[in-house]
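INFO batch 0412 | record 1 of 1 | parsing
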Amino acid sequence: MTLPRARVQDVPVSAPPSLLVRDLLFAYPDGHQALHGVDLRIEPGERVALLGPNGAGKTTLVLHLNGILAPGAGSVEIAGLSVSRKTVQEIRRRVGIVFQDPDDQLFMPTVREDVAFGPANFGVTGDALAARVHEALAAVGMQEQADRSPLHLSGGQRRRVALATVLACDPEILVLDEPSSNLDPVARRELAEVLLGLGRTMLMVTHDLPYALQLCPRSVILDDGIVVADGPTRELLADGELLARHRLELPFGFAL
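INFO prediction complete | emitting C-alpha coordinates
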Protein backbone atom coordinates (compact mmCIF):
# COMPACT_ATOMS: atom_id res chain seq x y z
CA MET A 1 0.00 0.00 0.00
CA THR A 2 1.17 3.47 -0.83
CA LEU A 3 -0.31 6.53 0.86
CA PRO A 4 -1.60 8.88 -0.38
CA ARG A 5 -3.43 7.68 -3.50
CA ALA A 6 -3.05 9.30 -6.89
CA ARG A 7 -5.01 12.47 -7.54
CA VAL A 8 -7.66 12.77 -10.24
CA GLN A 9 -5.25 13.83 -12.97
CA ASP A 10 -3.07 10.75 -12.34
CA VAL A 11 -5.92 8.23 -12.69
CA PRO A 12 -6.25 6.45 -16.07
CA VAL A 13 -9.16 7.66 -18.16
CA SER A 14 -10.49 4.11 -18.31
CA ALA A 15 -10.72 3.74 -14.52
CA PRO A 16 -14.29 3.11 -13.31
CA PRO A 17 -15.86 5.68 -10.99
CA SER A 18 -15.05 5.23 -7.32
CA LEU A 19 -18.78 5.41 -6.58
CA LEU A 20 -21.70 4.90 -8.91
CA VAL A 21 -25.23 5.00 -7.52
CA ARG A 22 -28.02 4.46 -10.03
CA ASP A 23 -31.75 5.02 -9.43
CA LEU A 24 -31.47 3.96 -5.78
CA LEU A 25 -34.76 3.52 -3.95
CA PHE A 26 -35.22 2.40 -0.38
CA ALA A 27 -38.15 2.16 2.03
CA TYR A 28 -37.92 1.20 5.71
CA PRO A 29 -40.13 -1.61 7.08
CA ASP A 30 -42.62 0.94 8.44
CA GLY A 31 -43.22 2.09 4.86
CA HIS A 32 -41.27 5.35 5.01
CA GLN A 33 -39.68 5.94 1.61
CA ALA A 34 -36.23 7.29 2.47
CA LEU A 35 -34.64 7.37 -1.01
CA HIS A 36 -36.46 8.21 -4.23
CA GLY A 37 -34.25 7.20 -7.17
CA VAL A 38 -30.87 8.66 -6.13
CA ASP A 39 -28.17 8.96 -8.80
CA LEU A 40 -24.61 9.85 -7.82
CA ARG A 41 -21.27 9.42 -9.56
CA ILE A 42 -17.92 10.21 -7.95
CA GLU A 43 -14.70 9.87 -9.94
CA PRO A 44 -11.38 8.67 -8.47
CA GLY A 45 -9.74 11.45 -6.44
CA GLU A 46 -12.85 13.64 -6.21
CA ARG A 47 -13.82 15.21 -2.87
CA VAL A 48 -17.58 15.63 -2.62
CA ALA A 49 -19.68 16.99 0.25
CA LEU A 50 -23.09 15.45 0.88
CA LEU A 51 -25.29 18.17 2.34
CA GLY A 52 -28.88 18.21 3.50
CA PRO A 53 -31.12 18.76 6.51
CA ASN A 54 -31.79 16.14 9.18
CA GLY A 55 -34.00 13.40 7.79
CA ALA A 56 -32.93 14.03 4.21
CA GLY A 57 -31.72 10.45 3.65
CA LYS A 58 -27.96 11.04 3.93
CA THR A 59 -27.34 8.29 6.49
CA THR A 60 -29.61 5.90 4.61
CA LEU A 61 -27.58 6.50 1.45
CA VAL A 62 -24.27 5.94 3.25
CA LEU A 63 -25.50 2.65 4.73
CA HIS A 64 -26.06 1.37 1.20
CA LEU A 65 -22.44 2.03 0.24
CA ASN A 66 -21.04 -0.81 2.34
CA GLY A 67 -23.97 -3.19 2.21
CA ILE A 68 -25.54 -2.56 5.61
CA LEU A 69 -28.80 -1.73 3.80
CA ALA A 70 -29.94 -3.38 0.56
CA PRO A 71 -31.76 -1.28 -2.03
CA GLY A 72 -35.40 -1.80 -2.87
CA ALA A 73 -34.40 -0.97 -6.44
CA GLY A 74 -31.39 0.45 -8.22
CA SER A 75 -27.72 -0.33 -7.68
CA VAL A 76 -24.49 0.76 -6.02
CA GLU A 77 -21.01 0.09 -7.40
CA ILE A 78 -17.65 0.75 -5.74
CA ALA A 79 -14.83 0.97 -8.29
CA GLY A 80 -16.82 -1.20 -10.69
CA LEU A 81 -17.83 -3.83 -8.10
CA SER A 82 -21.55 -4.09 -7.40
CA VAL A 83 -22.60 -4.08 -3.75
CA SER A 84 -24.27 -7.39 -2.93
CA ARG A 85 -24.25 -10.14 -0.33
CA LYS A 86 -21.57 -11.98 -2.31
CA THR A 87 -19.24 -8.99 -2.49
CA VAL A 88 -19.88 -7.42 0.91
CA GLN A 89 -16.50 -8.30 2.48
CA GLU A 90 -14.51 -6.70 -0.33
CA ILE A 91 -16.95 -3.78 -0.48
CA ARG A 92 -16.36 -3.08 3.22
CA ARG A 93 -12.65 -2.92 2.56
CA ARG A 94 -13.17 -0.55 -0.37
CA VAL A 95 -15.52 1.77 1.55
CA GLY A 96 -13.83 3.27 4.61
CA ILE A 97 -16.38 4.93 6.88
CA VAL A 98 -15.03 7.29 9.56
CA PHE A 99 -17.73 7.71 12.16
CA GLN A 100 -18.72 11.00 13.75
CA ASP A 101 -17.72 9.75 17.21
CA PRO A 102 -14.20 8.21 17.28
CA ASP A 103 -15.18 6.24 20.38
CA ASP A 104 -17.42 4.14 18.11
CA GLN A 105 -14.29 3.12 16.21
CA LEU A 106 -11.50 2.90 18.80
CA PHE A 107 -11.64 -0.01 21.24
CA MET A 108 -8.16 -1.57 21.46
CA PRO A 109 -5.60 -0.92 24.25
CA THR A 110 -3.23 1.05 22.00
CA VAL A 111 -3.37 3.21 18.90
CA ARG A 112 -1.17 0.72 17.02
CA GLU A 113 -3.54 -2.16 17.79
CA ASP A 114 -6.56 -0.14 16.74
CA VAL A 115 -4.99 0.73 13.39
CA ALA A 116 -3.88 -2.88 12.84
CA PHE A 117 -7.30 -4.37 13.60
CA GLY A 118 -8.95 -3.65 10.24
CA PRO A 119 -6.26 -4.87 7.84
CA ALA A 120 -5.59 -7.90 10.07
CA ASN A 121 -9.29 -8.75 9.78
CA PHE A 122 -8.88 -8.68 5.99
CA GLY A 123 -5.97 -11.11 6.16
CA VAL A 124 -2.93 -8.81 6.20
CA THR A 125 -0.17 -10.15 8.46
CA GLY A 126 3.50 -9.80 9.42
CA ASP A 127 5.65 -7.13 7.81
CA ALA A 128 2.86 -6.12 5.45
CA LEU A 129 0.59 -5.39 8.41
CA ALA A 130 3.31 -3.41 10.19
CA ALA A 131 3.84 -1.36 7.03
CA ARG A 132 0.12 -0.64 6.72
CA VAL A 133 0.01 0.61 10.31
CA HIS A 134 3.13 2.75 9.92
CA GLU A 135 1.95 4.35 6.67
CA ALA A 136 -1.55 5.04 7.96
CA LEU A 137 -0.26 6.68 11.15
CA ALA A 138 2.27 8.69 9.16
CA ALA A 139 -0.49 9.91 6.83
CA VAL A 140 -2.38 11.44 9.78
CA GLY A 141 0.69 12.57 11.75
CA MET A 142 0.18 10.20 14.66
CA GLN A 143 3.28 7.96 14.52
CA GLU A 144 4.56 9.18 17.89
CA GLN A 145 1.28 8.18 19.58
CA ALA A 146 1.33 4.57 18.33
CA ASP A 147 1.84 2.98 21.76
CA ARG A 148 -0.51 5.25 23.70
CA SER A 149 -4.03 4.42 24.72
CA PRO A 150 -6.64 6.18 22.55
CA LEU A 151 -8.38 7.11 25.81
CA HIS A 152 -5.49 9.43 26.66
CA LEU A 153 -5.58 11.39 23.42
CA SER A 154 -7.36 14.65 22.65
CA GLY A 155 -10.56 14.67 20.63
CA GLY A 156 -8.73 15.83 17.53
CA GLN A 157 -6.06 13.15 17.93
CA ARG A 158 -8.70 10.45 18.35
CA ARG A 159 -10.41 11.67 15.18
CA ARG A 160 -7.12 11.31 13.28
CA VAL A 161 -6.49 7.84 14.71
CA ALA A 162 -10.00 6.81 13.65
CA LEU A 163 -9.12 8.03 10.16
CA ALA A 164 -5.89 5.99 10.27
CA THR A 165 -7.83 2.82 11.14
CA VAL A 166 -9.68 3.23 7.86
CA LEU A 167 -6.66 4.25 5.77
CA ALA A 168 -4.82 1.11 6.89
CA CYS A 169 -7.39 -0.94 4.94
CA ASP A 170 -6.50 1.00 1.76
CA PRO A 171 -10.09 1.91 0.81
CA GLU A 172 -11.22 3.08 -2.59
CA ILE A 173 -13.36 5.83 -1.06
CA LEU A 174 -13.39 7.54 2.33
CA VAL A 175 -16.80 8.34 3.77
CA LEU A 176 -16.57 10.94 6.55
CA ASP A 177 -19.53 11.45 8.86
CA GLU A 178 -19.51 15.01 10.26
CA PRO A 179 -15.70 15.09 10.55
CA SER A 180 -15.53 18.58 12.09
CA SER A 181 -18.08 18.04 14.86
CA ASN A 182 -16.92 18.83 18.42
CA LEU A 183 -13.44 19.88 17.28
CA ASP A 184 -11.77 23.05 18.51
CA PRO A 185 -10.43 25.43 15.83
CA VAL A 186 -6.87 24.05 15.91
CA ALA A 187 -7.98 20.41 15.69
CA ARG A 188 -10.40 21.35 12.93
CA ARG A 189 -7.61 22.97 10.92
CA GLU A 190 -5.21 20.08 11.53
CA LEU A 191 -7.77 17.54 10.34
CA ALA A 192 -8.49 19.60 7.23
CA GLU A 193 -4.78 19.70 6.40
CA VAL A 194 -4.55 15.91 6.78
CA LEU A 195 -7.60 15.29 4.59
CA LEU A 196 -6.43 17.67 1.88
CA GLY A 197 -3.04 15.96 1.85
CA LEU A 198 -4.38 12.45 1.34
CA GLY A 199 -5.40 12.84 -2.29
CA ARG A 200 -8.09 10.17 -1.86
CA THR A 201 -11.62 9.91 -3.12
CA MET A 202 -13.83 11.34 -0.43
CA LEU A 203 -17.54 11.68 0.37
CA MET A 204 -18.04 13.98 3.34
CA VAL A 205 -21.44 14.04 5.04
CA THR A 206 -21.72 17.31 6.91
CA HIS A 207 -23.88 20.17 8.14
CA ASP A 208 -20.72 22.31 8.40
CA LEU A 209 -21.00 24.33 5.19
CA PRO A 210 -17.72 26.28 5.61
CA TYR A 211 -15.88 22.97 6.09
CA ALA A 212 -17.52 21.62 2.95
CA LEU A 213 -16.31 24.70 1.09
CA GLN A 214 -12.78 24.30 2.45
CA LEU A 215 -12.44 20.61 1.61
CA CYS A 216 -14.79 19.73 -1.24
CA PRO A 217 -14.84 21.45 -4.64
CA ARG A 218 -18.15 19.74 -5.39
CA SER A 219 -21.28 19.34 -3.27
CA VAL A 220 -24.50 17.38 -3.58
CA ILE A 221 -27.65 18.43 -1.71
CA LEU A 222 -29.99 15.63 -0.72
CA ASP A 223 -33.46 16.44 0.61
CA ASP A 224 -36.42 14.15 1.18
CA GLY A 225 -34.50 11.31 -0.46
CA ILE A 226 -33.89 13.19 -3.71
CA VAL A 227 -30.75 14.84 -5.11
CA VAL A 228 -31.92 18.43 -5.53
CA ALA A 229 -28.60 20.05 -6.47
CA ASP A 230 -25.16 18.91 -7.63
CA GLY A 231 -22.43 21.36 -8.52
CA PRO A 232 -19.45 23.44 -7.43
CA THR A 233 -19.64 23.98 -3.68
CA ARG A 234 -19.04 27.72 -3.84
CA GLU A 235 -21.86 28.20 -6.35
CA LEU A 236 -24.34 26.17 -4.31
CA LEU A 237 -23.48 27.98 -1.09
CA ALA A 238 -23.84 31.35 -2.81
CA ASP A 239 -27.46 30.53 -3.68
CA GLY A 240 -29.30 31.75 -0.59
CA GLU A 241 -32.70 30.71 -1.89
CA LEU A 242 -31.48 27.17 -2.55
CA LEU A 243 -30.05 26.88 0.96
CA ALA A 244 -33.18 28.26 2.60
CA ARG A 245 -35.43 25.97 0.60
CA HIS A 246 -33.57 22.94 1.92
CA ARG A 247 -33.01 24.15 5.49
CA LEU A 248 -29.30 24.81 5.14
CA GLU A 249 -27.65 27.90 6.53
CA LEU A 250 -24.20 29.46 6.56
CA PRO A 251 -22.90 30.80 9.90
CA PHE A 252 -23.86 34.39 10.64
CA GLY A 253 -21.35 36.77 9.07
CA PHE A 254 -19.66 34.10 6.93
CA ALA A 255 -18.55 35.61 3.63
CA LEU A 256 -17.98 33.56 0.49
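INFO post-check: The longest helix spans residues 126-139.
INFO record closed
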